[in-house]
């Protein structure tokens, strides 16, 4: 048996699978996020451990014999978090999360340092880990002086599971401390941000062994043999493993809390100026590139809170098929934006509102705005010689046929909708556990069955292209007004 643990922003998912990849059981445990100041986003690392204990207890209650046969655990987690430990392994402050923007000034300073983009392969975004430590040094010097180790969220959970400080290349690529091409910590990148190599965990490939489950936990969970902990990876890389996306030309688009358009790459070809992320994959000798928007279904959640109607109710106001773009233009920058703008200060906009517009029109505008933002990501990826003719579409937003057809038409790409079942980061983590114990990567990381495919509406392409052009023109005008 193999276990995938996915440390998400709002909760942990534990998935138990057999050696054939069949899902035996799934358990979830939720936790919260703290926002003590504007732009801040923090989490108590103890919440991840408590959630893991809760999920394992649920699996053990439902599948005691299967859990006893556990042989490997894979880890996935939200990227860029800064979990700071002292020399005794004690947490020094709440973890600063990926969507925290307090370190915008520090990020800009690091991004301008010589060689940083060349080595890291990326712009230094405010959400990345290195600028967070620069912020701590400037604003919490007494804490910074005690930092002995910096761990990413899933690697703190690994520390609790194994007692060792280990990370993988895919997650570490989002710190701005990793030489992404060489797949190793960079002395130059560490030095320019005031850090040292001894403050970093050891590195392994995501599909390799990265420790062993502590005996005390094996006894507590009723496991009758040794358990290998795989290197694991950042959530998007591991989700790609769950979706069987690791070869050149394969990719997926995710309509989740944030939005992601990811393409697997067989070679390292960064393009930092485009604000495309270039990271190591969770499997060896492979990379991936992705455009990221900070709010996708979160935009619909915002509209839901504002109008007092559930997201499902709002989505239900629209038909199953599109008939043309809205006259209302929505910029989905509720928390700033990454690709292609790298702009932490820009905010969302609704333009072209009519007195007769209501919840349905606003919902359509929000869905189109998210689709246009993902079109921005696709255009940026094209600049790195990425050619995607079809994509796997995943995430909660794909439950809306209207939104998926909008996205397919805006992108000009056919979207494959997976059949019901598990194919995300928790399954990808379990698959990495299998490879860490000897399974073949190609045999394990297969694509999910496809329920149906949504093709672009060629009869509406011209109309949506014109609407996208209006969307593109709005950003620089709003930026000028806000500065």
Automatic annotation (TrEMBL):
The active site is at residue 235. InterPro entries: ATPase_NBD, Carb_kinase_FGGY, Carb_kinase_FGGY_CS, FGGY_C, FGGY_Carb_Kinase, FGGY_N, Xylulokinase. The record marks 6 as: Important for activity. The keyword ATP-binding applies. Gene3D superfamilies: 3.30.420.40. Its EC number is 2.7.1.17. It is an enzyme of class 2 (transferase). It catalyses: D-xylulose + ATP = D-xylulose 5-phosphate + ADP + H(+). It comes from the Bacteria. It holds the Pfam family FGGY_C. The keyword DNA repair does not apply. Residues 1-242 form the Carbohydrate kinase FGGY N-terminal domain. Residues 252-436 form the Carbohydrate kinase FGGY C-terminal domain. Keywords: ATP-binding, Carbohydrate metabolism, Kinase, Nucleotide-binding, Transferase, Xylose metabolism. GO terms for molecular function: D-xylulokinase activity. Substrate binds at residues 79-80. Belongs to the FGGY kinase family. Catalyzes the phosphorylation of D-xylulose to D-xylulose 5-phosphate. HAMAP family: XylB (MF_02220). PANTHER family: SUGAR KINASE (PTHR43095), XYLULOSE KINASE (PTHR43095:SF6). This is Xylulose kinase. It comes from Tritonibacter scottomollicae (Epibacterium scottomollicae). The gene is xylB.
């Amino acid at each position: 048996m193999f276990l995938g643990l996915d440390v998400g922003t709002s909760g942990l998912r534990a998935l138990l699978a057999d050696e054939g990849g069949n899902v035996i059981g799934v358990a979830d445990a939720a936790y919260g996020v703290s926002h003590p100041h504007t732009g801040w986003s923090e989490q108590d690392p103890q919440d991840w451990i408590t959630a893991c204990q809760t999920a394992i207890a649920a699996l053990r209650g439902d599948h005691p014999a299967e859990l006893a046969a556990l042989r490997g655990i894979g880890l996935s987690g939200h990227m860029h978090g800064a979990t700071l430990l002292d020399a005794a392994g004690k947490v020094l402050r709440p973890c600063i999360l990926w969507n925290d923007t307090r370190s915008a000034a520090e990020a800009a300073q690091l991004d301008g340092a010589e060689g940083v983009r060349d080595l890291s392969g990326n712009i230094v975004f405010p959400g990345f880990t290195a600028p967070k430590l620069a912020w701590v040094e400037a604003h919490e010097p007494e804490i910074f002086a005690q930092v002995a180790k910096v761990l990413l969220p899933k690697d703190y959970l690994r520390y609790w599971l194994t007692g060792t400080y280990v990370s993988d290349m895919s997650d570490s690529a989002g710190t701005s401390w990793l030489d992404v091409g060489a797949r190793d910590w960079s002395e130059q990148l560490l030095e320019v941000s005031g850090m040292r190599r001894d403050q970093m965990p050891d590195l392994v490939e995501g599909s390799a062994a990265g420790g062993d489950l502590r005996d005390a936990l094996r006894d507590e969970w009723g496991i009758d043999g040794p358990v290998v902990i795989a290197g694991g990876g950042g959530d998007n890389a591991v989700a790609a493993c769950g979706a069987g996306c690791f070869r050149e030309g394969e990719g997926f688009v995710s309509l989740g809390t944030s939005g992601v358009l990811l393409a697997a790459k067989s070679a390292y070809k960064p393009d930092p100026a485009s604000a495309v992320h270039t990271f190591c994959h969770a499997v060896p000798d492979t990379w991936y590139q992705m455009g990221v928007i900070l709010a996708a279904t979160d935009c619909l959640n915002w509209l839901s809170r504002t109008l007092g109607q559930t997201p499902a109710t709002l989505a239900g106001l629209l038909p199953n098929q599109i008939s043309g773009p809205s006259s209302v233009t929505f910029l989905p920058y509720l928390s700033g934006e990454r690709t292609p703008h790298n702009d932490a200060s820009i905010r969302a906009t609704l333009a072209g509102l009519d007195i007769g517009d209501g919840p349905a029109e606003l919902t359509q505008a929000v869905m189109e705005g998210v689709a246009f933002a993902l079109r921005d990501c696709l255009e940026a990826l094209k600049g790195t010689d990425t050619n995607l003719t079809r994509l796997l579409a995943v995430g909660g937003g794909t439950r809306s046929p209207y939104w998926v057809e909008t996205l397919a038409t805006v992108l000009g790409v056919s979207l494959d909708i997976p059949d019901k079942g598990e194919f995300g980061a928790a399954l990808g983590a379990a698959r990495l556990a299998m490879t860490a114990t000897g399974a073949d990567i190609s045999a394990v990381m297969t694509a999910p069955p496809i329920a149906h495919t949504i093709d672009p509406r060629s009869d509406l392409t011209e109309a949506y292209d014109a609407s996208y052009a209006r969307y593109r023109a709005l950003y620089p005008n709003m930026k000028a007004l806000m500065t």
